[in-house]
């Protein structure tokens, strides 16, 4: 039996988009969106939509996407470090003001026949509906009160969202080292002549700048103006002397939400209520709107809510969990970012693009040949090298000379007795467990070890983690660092070499 009454809790992008798609699929169904805030109340600045998300929205609802793209601002991506800039051409990125996005989605929802109920707080239990779609955000009261097996993992790094009343020419990643430590901004333009400025830092820097005190002194519904004034000076070059603007802006730590179940009875979770992924790899808006597409299709095609919810979760969970794992790696990379600011900007851009294992080196060489050419030259100690057809093979075949080494390539046989074997399995190289590995490595170096051979399971996830651990050993302990991995993952290993995560690689025995 198909639902005749659907209630959506939450008037954010995911909830509004789900309501429109559900109403379009079944015009006779009564669909109501319940949002506790007023229609013109929103928090945040710009929202970014990548090319893949735009294609999915185009297939599901071309009219809505057309208005979003028209209202948005396309831009390239740049990284600025030490006075140098690396640019990646990508006019497929669209930034749109969150206020404008919500206005578009509200308009299209009403056009489809959805009723919008603003200004009243509702709970799932109190709603008279066959299906309740809970799109009530990362702090979802529905999730916390229900049987969804929810868990929340809190990150180590700190960040805040703010904005500026001018349009950046491109998205920009820019680290700045201050007497207190390193801050990095991810900033990008969006519609309305404004730009989003997201600023991240580590806890040591945050405390040194006394932002723990300013955070404690800022009420939940206010903006930490002391932090904004400080950051205006830090990022004066990017801001051109303009001020930063806040909207309930305060330092926070990212919360990764996971749920064992996305539905319970007549209630189904959507977007941040069900799952989150670190903003550096996938926005909550993207995930929520893609959830909405799958949920609307399932409810339209399955006979009964239970079957529809099962199909929705079966379709979306693999994609969400894959993105969450990519986002976890990206979050760890950004939380440890200050250790990499010594890299030339082009190599740092390669490190950024390949940090989570989602962008293959050979594909990035096609997308940004100038950046990769400079990075290849920096890696080999020569002038820029136009990316060859087999860029992975080129990296692996480079000789390594210096520091007492004279090797014909970056691939060495296993078993060098001068190297200490590190076979600790850690999920997070920057955790307390990672600290213990680094401490032990320092003792080995002090005792005369020439370096380290980092070994472990041959699966891809473990190999990528070994590269991250090797990067930490290379930067904090020194010596020659070799990472073991299967020849089938030669592209990942080459990207690690080019990004400064390891000095050499060796094939897993029997896998070469």
Radius of gyration: 24 Å
Q: What structural class do the secondary elements suggest?
A: alpha/beta
The fraction of residues assigned to DSSP E strands is 15-25%
CATH fold category name of the largest domain: FAD/NAD(P)-binding domain
The top level CATH class name of the largest domain: Alpha Beta
Describe this entry's structure for a reader.
With 512 residues, the chain is an alpha/beta fold. It has three domains: 5-41 and 97-151 and 256-330, FAD/NAD(P)-binding domain (3-Layer(bba) Sandwich); 158-239, D-Amino Acid Oxidase, Chain A, domain 2 (2-Layer Sandwich), CATH 3.30.9; 346-507, no CATH class. The protein has helices at residues 13-25, 51-60, 62-71, 98-112, 141-145, 203-208, 211-217, 225-234, 236-239, 284-301, 305-335, 345-354, 361-367, 369-380, 391-396, 432-446, 460-476, 490-498; strands at residues 5-9, 30-35, 46-49, 73-81, 84-97, 115-118, 131-134, 150-154, 158-164, 171-178, 181-190, 194-201, 255-259, 263-264, 267-269, 400-402, 405-407, 419-422, 451-454, 480-485, 504-507. The strands form five sheets. A seven-stranded mixed beta sheet has the order 3-5-4-10-11-12-9. Strand 10 and strand 11 (181-190) form a beta hairpin. Helix 13 crosses helix 14 (369-380). The longest helix has 31 residues, at 305-335.
